[in-house]
Specification:
two-stranded antiparallel ribbon; 3 domains; mainly alpha; about 425 residues; Recoverin, domain 1; 19 helices
């Protein structure tokens, strides 16, 4: 068989079976076929019908989408969308991406050219296409190959250590373009674009941004955070105040599994610190947590390992098995003899990194520390605290004000550092 194949990136309907046009390795095409087969079933995912090969070509038969690319619609509308119209687009993008991520699939090439409308109608359904660069990823795995399109690529992809969060950055770029009509990161050369992605902050001052709602701006900023740990997940983005709408069902989020896994394996002090933090959570953060808790279908107000297992299996596809997503349940084993009520679930499912982006983080942390002081704070030595945080003796000099002189317990600074976790890097390992 010939090593290169011709391949049409635009899905043509079952009747056309169009011959492919650009050369791509056969393995990539086979992987895309496997991916489309494994993921089939979501309304915003292009339908896969069949694939076959002859001596020279691989043919993929997919649903015909006659409405053109999202990119063309943006241009037809004079370069930008009103907020309400942008929301309709984003709800569809986020829903299908949340579905892919729960299945352990990262798309890696989300951009307006890779979303097609089913028809020319104004309210036509949007479909994601082109899984040629997609990959399966386990919940705890990092990928390291640089793929994607320069304008949409996330900083951590350029640093060669990334997972599903890179897709949310790309959605942030798409949202920025939808709302204002220009790209957030721009330069004349590819290396210039990469430099901009790594270092520049998007412009939110020029027209039309002053007339765009604060919620929409906050939404974009929470996706275009250069620290992937602080970025919203697709399920969280769907519960953001800008998109929050009773009619939108919030999907199950794999992040909950990762955070709960860490919580049930954490030390008693860490759990006490997180419990205090959960008591200080602002109301808007609870919308997402309530939705996730109810998706786990609690019994008598409690969830256990069985709830997490059943909820995951309810959403299972072949892709989820291929990506070994259910392996995470083995790491949640302490839950087989421990149940969580909603309050403790909140403590377990908080992402400290994401909360630190909240405009009122200082207030939240101070209130949480007051709760911690009432219940959970205890006398701790410098050595023990360093051990709790996986820090060596070299860190002692930095930790002077983390423990109160008055009673030997954690101080407010110590509490916030302990929640965040600290990595002490030697100067020669930093990215220049």
């Amino acid at each position: 068989m010939h090593g290169e194949v011709a391949y049409s990136r635009l899905p043509k309907g079952p009747k056309t079976k169009k011959k492919m046009t650009s050369a791509i390795a056969i393995e990539d095409v086979r992987r895309e076929v496997k991916m489309l087969k494994a993921l089939s079933g979501h309304r915003n995912l292009v339908k896969f019908y069949d694939a076959f090969e002859d001596a020279n070509n691989v043919y993929i038969v997919m649903e015909l989408c006659e409405g053109g690319e999202l990119l063309d619609r943006i241009l037809d509308r004079g370069g930008r969308y009103p907020e309400d119209d942008a929301k309709v687009i984003l709800l569809q993008i986020l829903n299908v991406v949340a579905f892919c991520h729960l299945q352990g699939v990262v798309h890696r090439d989300l951009k307006p050219e890779n979303f097609l409308f089913v028809s020319k109608d104004e309210d036509a359904v949007l479909k994601v296409i082109d899984f040629g660069l997609s990959d399966f990823v386990r919940p705890d795995q990092r990928l390291n190959d640089i793929v994607g399109s320069a304008y949409y690529v996330a900083p951590e992809v350029l640093h060669r250590s990334y997972s599903v969060e890179g897709d949310l950055w790309s959605i942030g770029v798409i949202t920025y373009i939808l709302l204002c009509g220009s790209r957030p990161f721009w330069a004349r050369s590819e290396s210039g674009i990469f430099r901009s992605v790594l270092r520049a902050n998007p412009n939110f001052d020029d027209s039309p941004w002053p007339s765009i709602s604060p919620e929409a701006k906050d939404f974009v900023k929470r996706l275009l955070n250069k620290d992937h740990r602080k970025r919203m997940t697709a399920a969280q983005a769907l519960s953001h105040p800008w998109l929050r709408d009773e009619k939108n069902a919030i999907p199950l989020d794999i992040l909950i599994y990762k955070l709960v896994k860490s919580y049930v394996r954490a030390s008693p002090l860490k759990r006490a610190a997180l419990k205090a933090l959960s008591k200080a959570l602002p109301d808007e953060e609870l919308t997402y947590l309530r939705a996730q808790f109810s998706l786990l279908e609690p019994r008598d107000g409690f969830v256990s390992l069985e709830n997490f297992t059943v909820a995951l299996m309810k959403n299972a596809t072949d892709a989820m098995k291929e990506a070994r997503v259910p392996d995470i349940l083995n790491l949640m084993d302490p839950l087989s003899y421990k149940r969580l009520d909603f309050e403790e679930f909140c403590a377990a499912a908080i992402s400290v990194y994401q909360l630190e982006v909240h405009p009122d983080w200082d207030k939240i942390a101070t209130a949480a520390f007051d709760y911690f002081d009432e219940e959970g704070n205890r006398v701790i030595s410098l050595e023990e605290l360093a051990q709790e945080m996986n820090l060596g003796p070299s860190a002692y000099s930095l930790m002077g004000d983390w423990i109160r002189k008055s009673d030997g317990k954690l101080s407010l600074v110590g509490y916030t550092k302990y929640l965040h976790g600290v990595t002490i890097r030697s100067s020669n390992t930093r990215h220049r």
